[in-house]
């Protein structure tokens, strides 16, 4: 049963624990399982489910493609560079949990008499981390957060007062900030919007050239090729709901001005 618990906690299976938690099975196995271990089984199942949800989420996020992502529960979310960065940071932040499971498995192999309560005591410190990360994933899926809006949500959950959670959040937001810094670098240095998924807080919009025609003199219009006059003008604007609250309002305006020069 200990090995079944380790597999379940690693996001593999978990049906054995659920069967053992069943009332009829538990009654039949009272000679092997103490009644108080029923509560322990329930806690282990909850922890296993929390980790499995996060594991499945990270595996569902593709490395490329623009099609909507369908999660295991049927929910759909838009793909994007920020979502991929979040998924990567989420996977990295769970490394201490996975390492702990490996060490726990070695301990069980060395001491086969390890009880369920002993297993629970090893994974219980990770409950706040798993709970927080599941809450964040749920916010992204439920609110269909996209692009820089993910940064805003992460910023709101950045400080929890729990070292393990704060370290994980710092890692995740660092991964997401790398995307924004790459976009800013591309825009400020080269005037190129690196934004295939419409996630950045600066976007381009096409405008008509009718006003240009009317404002030009006859001499001006004769000196400009017709194909230039007929081409739509590209303008840029700030997408306010994509600007994280911790970025001063003047920064996007200055960035827009510099990149559009």
Work out the strand percent: 5-15%
Outline: elongated
Strand order of the largest sheet: 1-2
**What percent of the residues sit in helical stretches (DSSP H or I)?**
55-70%
Task: Give me the secondary-structure topology.
Layout: H1 2-9, H2 15-21, H3 23-28, H4 37-60, E1 69-70, E2 76-77, H5 81-93, H6 95-110, H7 116-123, H8 127-142, H9 148-156, H10 163-190, E3 202-207, H11 210-215, H12 218-223, H13 226-230, E4 233-238, H14 250-259
Antiparallel strand pairs: 1-2, 3-4
Helix pairs in contact: 1-6, 2-4, 4-5, 4-7, 4-8, 5-10, 9-10, 10-14
Task: Characterise this structure.
- By secondary structure, the chain is mainly alpha-helical.
- It has one domain (1-187).
- Helix content is 62%, strand content 6%.
- The protein has helices spanning 2-9, 15-21, 23-28, 37-60, 81-93, 95-110, 116-123, 127-142, 148-156, 163-190, 210-215, 218-223, 226-230, 250-259, and strands spanning 69-70, 76-77, 202-207, 233-238.
- The protein has a two-stranded antiparallel ribbon.
- β1 (69-70) and β2 (76-77) form a beta hairpin.
- α1 (2-9) runs antiparallel to α6 (95-110), α5 packs antiparallel against α10 (163-190) and α10 (163-190) packs parallel to α14.
- The longest helix is centred in the C-terminal third of the chain and has 28 residues, at 163-190.
- The protein is elongated and about 75 Å long.
- The N and C termini lie far apart (66 Å).
- GO terms for molecular function: gamma-tubulin binding; microtubule minus-end binding.
- One of its GO terms (biological process) is spindle assembly.
- It is found in: Cytoplasm, Cytoskeleton, Microtubule organizing center.
- Belongs to the TUBGCP family.
- It comes from Homalodisca liturata.
